[in-house]
Amino acid sequence: MSNDSIIQIVKSIYPNLDFIPLHEPRFVGNERKYVLDAIDSTFVSSVGAYVDQFESMMTKITQTQKAVAVVNGTSALQVALRLVGVNPGDEVITQALTFIATTNSILYNGASPIFIDVDYDTMGLSPKAVSDFLEEYCELREDVCYNKKTNKKISACLPMHTFGFPVNLSELINVCNKWKIPIVEDAAEAVGSEYNGVPVGGFGQVGVFSFNGNKIVTSGGGGAIVTNNLEIGKRAKHLTTTAKVPHPYEYIHDEIGYNFRMPNLNAALACAQLENLNEFVENKRNLANSYASYFKEKGIKFRTELPGSKSNYWLMCIELENKKERDNVLEFTNKNGVMTRPIWQLIYKSKFYSDFQKDSQRNASLLEDRIINIPSSVTK
Ligand SMILES: Cc1ncc(COP(=O)(O)O)c(C=O)c1O
Asked: In the prediction, which pLDDT does 1 show?
């Protein structure tokens, strides 16, 4: 029943294709022009006008004070945690229902994740579950949050806007303010999404985006760090450009930085793509409406944005009855030319994440068994 309905709607939206991918990029604007221009300029590598233009576009789009272009979303997350003061031996609160880059960035900093449940409706970190955890296990010592069980400092909270649906930011901010924990928003999937009319990414101390080829807009590979704190912004640029002290010819580095610069060639592609962001978001929102009314008629749950939030509908999702139905649909659709995929396996099920502290994971487990993504590319 679900199988035929899914195949039918997807094939009507993306006709004449033998295989319908989950999400493919659209290059319908100035992409060729800007990339060729970058080549002609000879500035194809780590400096160039398109890098500056990309950063300026991202500050406008996210309504933040500073954006820094980097090689991918994963490196952006790694640096973002360091920027808010995550040090080796610390702990970071995050969700287990996410892509592994979110939590790998914690390990890269020598810190440990604490896995807290998600809200059923947003599929992102639950402010109530975070608060319950903090009340039970933590205490403030001179305005620093410590986990009494491990005696470690909790130095960041890392929520993720799943598939472009914003987490409940206002409540999460209240909880984190009370416990003096900075927020890093993993908005890798959510460029163009809004919460209470404001773009996501600028709510926490630092926000992170991805421009990987599977995202709503792409630079081939790329990422961005955004912030409203100019000091943090300056340090973000410094750390991601090898921490070189500005000088016309000397090579002096004042700390251990990274070579995470986005090449100008990629920034050229990104600038052209960002010019189309609003149009792509509108296109996907229309597609979401079509899916929503179709699936409603068929009695299948299609995930829509919550009141007060605007989703970029990066990857559209349906919720099935149970894991058995999920597996059945995944097998049938993929065999029949329609690409679908399950939401991520909960991170702590990976062997190298199995020993970290976690709460009940009630909603995360339920969603893990039921949510699948269906083809979501921009339709023209
Ligand atoms: C939630 C999330 N975080 C981080 C990343 C990492 O971004 P990138 O692939 O650009 O490294 C991605 C996606 O790829 C993601 O979906």
From this structure: 61
